[in-house]
Amino acid sequence: xxxxxxxxxRQRLFAILIAGIGSAAASVISYAAAIYHAANPAPLRTxxxxxxxxxxQWHITIAGARISNKPPTGIKPTEPQTFLLVDFEADNRSAAxxxxxxxxxxxxxTIPELPExxxxxxxxxxxxxxxxPRMPEKLTAAWQLxxxxxxxxxxxxxxxxxxxxxxxxxxxxxNWFDREPVAAxxxxxxxxxxxxxx
Amino acid sequence: MTSEYPNTRxxxxxxxxxxxxxxPAAILMHSRGAFIEWIAQASHEPITIERxxxxxxxxxxxxxxxxxxxxxxxxDTNVLLAELEIAIDDPVRIKQALPCSIWLIDKDGRRWExxxxxxxxxRQMRPDAVGKPHCFNLPEIARAGTVQMVETFLIPHDAEGxxxxxxxxxxxxxxxxxx
Amino acid sequence: xxxxLKNAVALCLAIAALYGxxxxxxxxxxxxxxxxxxxxxxxxxxxxxxxxGIVKVYLAQELTAPxxxxxxxxxxxxxxxxxxxxxxxxxxxxxxxxxxxxxxDGIRYAMTRRLSTTPGLLGSERLEPxxxxxxxxxFELPENxxxxxxxxxxxxxxxxxxxxxxxxMTPIEAANIHPSITIERxxxxxxxKLEFQ
Lengths: 198, 179, 197
Prior knowledge:
- The complex is a heterotrimer.
- In chain B, 28% of the residues lie in helices and 34% in strands.
- Chain B is of the alpha+beta class.
- The mean pLDDT of chain B is 85.
- Chain C has 2 domains: 1-31; 32-196, Immunoglobulin-like, CATH 2.60.40.1240.
- Chain C has helices at residues 3-24, 28-31; strands at 35-40, 45-46, 50-67, 70-89, 98-102, 108-110, 133-141, 150-154, 163-168, 177-185, 192-196.
- Chains in contact: A-C, B-C.
C-alpha cells in the first residue's frame, strides 16, 4: 500500500512538473523579449523634406515649415499671434476615412506649453476633415506658439507611427493605435527672427 | 455505482429541471431590476384624459386646451399647434419630475416629436402662441399658478386620431394621453 | 490501438478543435456591427424605421456650392459623386446621420465634410413619419472606387445592432457625368438646385 501511494505521488509530481514547464517557458520568453526590445530600441531614422515616411496608417511627406502671423485660412486673427506652420502631404493607407491624429507630430526639444495643432486642408484653405483612403491630400499643421516663445532657426520634427491591432486588449475591437516616433525631420524655419520681431 | 448511490437518475433529472428555473432567475438578478422595470413600463396604460377635462399629474393639473391644424409649407402637410394648460400647485414636485417629454401620437401608433424651430405660419395665423413656453422650458417657469404651454408638430395631413402623450421622467411609468 | 496512440490522437483532435474555434471567433466589430438591410438603386429600400430611395446620381470633377462667405469651388484629386435621394421616417421622428460609400475593395469613404452649409445635406433636417423629404449626399471618391460601390445609410454609425441600409448602386449613365456641378439654394420643398456645366 505504501509503495502504491509513493508511486502515485511521484506520478502526480511528474505531471505537475510537465505542465509547469510550458507556462514557465512562456513567462520567461515574454519577459526576455520585453527586456530585449527595451534595451535595443529601433533607431529613429532621419528623413529629409520631400521623402516619404511610412508611419503604418499614413504615408507622410513633409514639405517644409514656416512661421507666420496668420493661419493657413489667410484671415488674420484679432489679437496678434504667431503660428508655426508645417506643410505636408498625407496619404491614408487604412480602409476608412480618418482624421490626422493629433499625436502624429512632436518636436525634439519639446516646445513648452505648446497647444494641439490644427490641421488645415490647403485646397480649401479651411480646417481639414477626415482624409479619404487612396486620395493623398496636401495639408498644413498649424501650432499657435506661446506668446513669449522665440522659435529657433532650426527645428527637429518627430513623426509618430501607428499600429493596427485586430483585437485590442480592452474590447477585442479592431483599431489603430499611436506608437513611438518613427522618423525625425530637420526643418529650417525661414524668417523665424523676422516674424518674431514683427 | 448504483449500490453506493441510489436515486442517481432521479437526482440527475431533478437538477436538470431546476436549471430551467435557475438560469432565468440568474438573468433577472443580473439585470438588477432593469428588466422588471422595463416590463412594468411597457405594459402600463397611460391615463387618458378627454378634451376639456383636467387631470392631476406630477404636482399640477394638466388640461389640453386645443389641437389646431394649420397649413404647412410642404405639400400635404399640416403644422399642428398643441396648447396645454397646467395649474401647478406643487412646483417642487414638478421640478423633481423633470425632464418632461411630449409626443404626438396617431391611431396607427406613429409618433412625432415637437419641432425645434417655429414655423412662420404660426406667427402669421396664431401670433398669441408665439412667445409661449415649451415642455423643455418647464424648469424656468415652474412656479405655483397657471402655466400655458405650446408645442408645434409637423405632420402629414392624413394623420388621424391624434392625441398628445406627456411623460415626466420622475413620474414614470405613469404617463398622460390627452385626446 | 494502444493506449498511448489513442491519447495522442485525442490530443491532436482537441488541439485542432480549439484552433478552429479560435479562428472562427468573430471580431468585436463584427458582433456589434449594424444589421445590414440590402437594397437596390431604383426601388425604395425599407428598414424598420425609415424608407429611402435613390433618385439620381451624378459625377463631376469640380463642385461649386454655397459656403461661409459666398460660394466656393471645391476641387478634388478624384471625382465628386452627388446623389439626390428621398427618405421618410416610418414610425418615429428620426435623424439620419451616417452615410458611407463602400467601394468594390471594401474601403469605406465617409461623406465629405468640406461642404458645410450646403442645404439639404444628410443630417440637416429631422425626418418626420409620413413626410418624405429630399436628401443630398456628396462623396469624394477615387475613380476606381465608384463602379460596383455600395451606399451605406444608417441613423447612427456607432449604435450597435441598429439597421443600416446597404444600397447596391448601378453604373452611372454617361449623361449624368459632368465636368462641373453647381449647387444652389432652392425653396422649401426642394432645398437645393443643381446646375451642370
